[in-house]
C-alpha cells in the first residue's frame, strides 16, 4: 500500500526541485524569458498554490492556468437556464454544491433557492435518482455538469432511470470534453504555450491518447499528472526534459491511477448515452465545435432540455459578462487573477462577480485562498 505522505515528502521534493532548476538552466529559461507550462486542470491550480509550488520552482517557469474548471467555463446563460428550470413549480432541481453560488445574469441558484425554488444539493446523480423515487408526483432535474470525470456517473444514472422507468427524472446536460478547448488555445496566435500538465482525473476515464494531437500536430509535450505536490513537480520536470531534448510526447506520470486506454466500462456508458453537440458555448472561448455532449434520442425522455423546452433546443442565447469581469481571460490563461480590476474588491468569495471566485477549482479562488497579497505583488 502507498500512502499520501510519500507524495508530500519534503526531502524528495528538494531533490526534484534541484533537478528542475538544473534542467531550466540547460534550457536557458529565465524570469524574462520563461518556459510557459499550462496546467489544464483547476485542481492542479489549487494544488500549485496550496503547496506553494509557484514559489518553490525557479523563475524560469511560468504556470499558465487553463480552462480545466467545469463550473468556471460554463457561460452565464446556462446558469440562467438552470434558474429557469429550478423556478418551475413542478421541479425539484438537484445540483452539486459547487454550482450553487455561481452568478447568473440575474441571480444564482442559491438566490433562487432563497426566493423559494426547490433546489437541493446532492453528492451524486444517484442521490437525485433517489429523490425522484421518493417524489413520484414531482419532476426531478439533475444538473449534469463536468468534464469526462463526472460524465460516466450521470450516464449510468440515466441508464438506471431507464431500467426503472423513472419518467420523472431528467438531466440538464452540461457535460463537456477537454481536448477541443485545448486545440482552440493552441490555435490562438496570442497564446504562448510550451508544454502542458494534463488532468489526471479526466485521463482516468479517457486514457492518455486523446491528447496525442498536442504532441503530433502542435509539437508540444504533455504529461498527465496526479494531484500531490511530488506528482506535479515530477510532471513539470518531465515536461522540461522533453523541451530540453527536443521531444514532444504524451507521457503518463499518474500511471498508478491512469490506464493508457482509460476505463472501458465508463467509456461504454458515455458512448451509449451521449453524443457530441454540434457546438457548445464556453466562457471566454465562445462556441466550440463538438466540445459538449448531449443525450441521445434513445434516452430523450431523460433530457431536461427536451422535456422543458430550455437550452439549445429552445434557441440558446448568449449572455454578456458583467462590465469589467475578466473571468474569460483568466480562465484561458491570458491574464492572472489579480490583473482583473474586480479581483478582491468587487469580486470576493463572499460576493462573487464571476464563477472563478466561487468554484473549488477556480483560479481566482486559488489565488484568493492561498495567494493573498503576494499574488498581487507578483503580478505587479
3D architecture notes:
This protein is 39% helix and 17% strand. It has helices at 10-27, 42-50, 53-56, 70-73, 76-86, 109-114, 125-134, 151-164, 179-187, 200-206, 212-216, 229-245, 264-273, 304-308, 327-331, 363-371, 373-379, and strands spanning 35-41, 61-68, 91-95, 119-121, 139-146, 169-175, 195-199, 222-225, 250-252, 274-276, 279-282, 286-289, 293-295. It has a five-stranded parallel β-sheet with strand order 2-1-7-8-9. Strands 4-3-5-6 form a four-stranded parallel β-sheet, sandwiched between helices. α8 links the parallel β5 and β6 (169-175). The N and C termini lie far apart (45 Å).
Strand content: 15-25%
The mean pLDDT is: 92
CATH top level of the largest domain? Alpha Beta
Q: What is the assigned CATH homologous superfamily of the largest domain?
A: HypD, alpha/beta domain 2
> Runs with pLDDT <50, length 5+?
373-380
Encode the helix/strand succession as letters.
HEHHEHHEHEHEHEHEHHEHEHEEEEHHHH
CATH architectural type of the largest domain: 3-Layer(aba) Sandwich
Q: What topology, given as strand order, has the largest sheet?
A: 2-1-7-8-9
Number of strands: 13
| Main sheet summary | 5 strands, parallel
Share of residues in helices: 25-40%
Essential attributes:
disordered C terminus, 380 residues, 13 strands, Rossmann fold, alpha/beta, globular
Q: What is the topological layout?
A:
Blueprint: H1 10-27, E1 35-41, H2 42-50, H3 53-56, E2 61-68, H4 70-73, H5 76-86, E3 91-95, H6 109-114, E4 119-121, H7 125-134, E5 139-146, H8 151-164, E6 169-175, H9 179-187, E7 195-199, H10 200-206, H11 212-216, E8 222-225, H12 229-245, E9 250-252, H13 264-273, E10 274-276, E11 279-282, E12 286-289, E13 293-295, H14 304-308, H15 327-331, H16 363-371, H17 373-379
Parallel strand pairs: 1-2, 1-7, 3-4, 3-5, 5-6, 7-8, 8-9
Antiparallel strand pairs: 10-13, 11-12
